Amino acid sequence: MWFDRPGRENTDRTLELAYERGNVLGIDEVVVASTNGTTGFKAVEIFKGFKVVVVTYHCGFKEPFKSVMPAEVKKDLTLKGATVVAATHALSGVERAIANKHSGLYPALLIADTLRLLGQGVKVAVEVSIMAADAGALSGRDIIAIGGTGKGADTAVVLKPANQSDMFDIRIREVICKPWDF
After folding, report:
1. Which pLDDT score, from 0 to 100, does residue 92 have?
2. Fewer CB within 10 A of the end CB, N or C, for the chain?
3. Are 167 and 26 in contact (CB under 8 A)?
4. Which pLDDT does position 94 carry in this prediction?
C-alpha cells in the first residue's frame, strides 16, 4: 500500500497493515520505532500475540545525559509486555559526531542515505531492526519492522534481521506500506 504523503496520520493504518501481513506470513516479532512511546503503546495494543520490541533514541540524543523517552513510559510499555530498547543509531552513531566536527562522508552515513532513497521510514525500519538485534531482543527469524518520517509510523517492511556486525546479511523481503511522496 502507498500513502499519498508521509507522516503520523498514517500510523494506525501502518500498524494495522503490518499486523495483518505478519499474521498471514506467520511472523510473530515486530520492531517499532517510538520516540516518546505513543507509537509503541499503539503497537502493543494492535500486535496481540506478537513479541513487540519498541526502539527509542539513546540517552543524550537530544540533550546530554537525558533520555528522550521518559522512564515512566518505558516502565509502562514493559508492563504491557513490550521490550524497550534505547540504543545509539546503528546507521550514524559516532560517525555523525565525526562528520559534524570534521566534515566528510562516512560509510554508515552513506548506507543511511542510500536507504533513504526508498524513504526515511525504510531507513528507520532497517536501523531499529539492527538496534533491536544488537540488544539481544530478536530471535533471528523474519520480523516486521516499522519506521516513520518524523513523527508516527508510515512504513512497514518484512525483513530478515541481522546484527550491526553482519548488517549486509539483512534482507528486506517485502514492503508492506510506505509513502509514495517523501
Report:
1. 83
2. N
3. no
4. 79
List C-alpha distances in Å: 163 to 24, 64, 92, 110, 140.
26, 26, 15, 18, 9
The β-bridge relationship of strands 155-160 and 143-147 is antiparallel
Q: Which residues of the chain have pLDDT under 70?
A: none
- Give yes or no for a contact between 25 and 158, defined as CB atoms under 8 angstroms apart: yes
Distance between CA atoms of residues 19 and 9, nearest Å: 17
Residue 102's pLDDT is 84
What does the pLDDT read at residue 180?
A: 96
For residue 61, what are the CA distances in angstroms to 29, 67, 102, 179? 26, 8, 19, 26
Task: Name residues whose C-beta falls within 8 Å of residue 49's C-beta, 6 or more positions apart in sequence.
Answer: 28
Q: What are the backbone dihedrals phi and psi of residue 29, each rounded to the nearest 5 degrees, phi first?
A: -130, 135
Residues in CB range of 102: below 8 A, 6 or more apart:
none
- The conformation of residue 54, written as its DSSP 8-state character, comes to E
Residue 109: its pLDDT value, please?
87
86 neighbors 78 (Cβ within 8 angstroms): no
This prediction's pTM: 0.93
